[in-house]
Design goal:
The protein is of the alpha+beta class. It contains two helices and six strands, in the order ββββααββ. It has a six-stranded mixed beta sheet with strand order 4-3-2-1-5-6, covered by helices on one side.
Length: about 110
């Protein structure tokens, strides 16, 4: 699977958004990792590790990238547009084993697999 990371803050707490393409199972996924002490009423499921995970969804594997843009909008979290562009490229090329970290300006670095 490809893993695209962006570190930012939400309500004063550090969070990490991970978006990617799962090549073997052929679906997009997204998680928003948070510290355990961050509890927010916008969360669908109370979880110590995640503000959001597609695995908390009723249909965890049937969502496209626009859906995940909307989820980020629900939490008022901005990520670089290049993150979505690169995950779309992973889908188009059915890429796996790609790890990428993003900066706020949209630049990114491949970290390997």
């Amino acid at each position: 699977m490809s893993q695209h990371y962006f570190e930012t803050h939400y309500k004063g707490f550090p969070i990490t958004v991970m978006l990617g393409w799962d090549r073997p199972l052929r679906y997009f996924f997204m998680t928003i990792r948070k510290p355990a002490e961050l509890i927010d009423s916008a969360m669908k499921v109370e979880d110590e590790d995640f503000l959001y995970s597609n695995l908390h969804e009723e249909d965890p594997f049937g969502h496209g990238l626009d859906y995940y843009r909307a989820v980020l909008g629900h939490f008022h979290i901005d990520v670089p547009s290049s993150m979505f562009t690169e995950v779309q490229k992973d889908y188009a090329g059915n890429v796996g084993n790609r790890v990428v970290k993003y900066e706020a300006d949209g630049s990114f670095a491949e970290l390997g697999a």
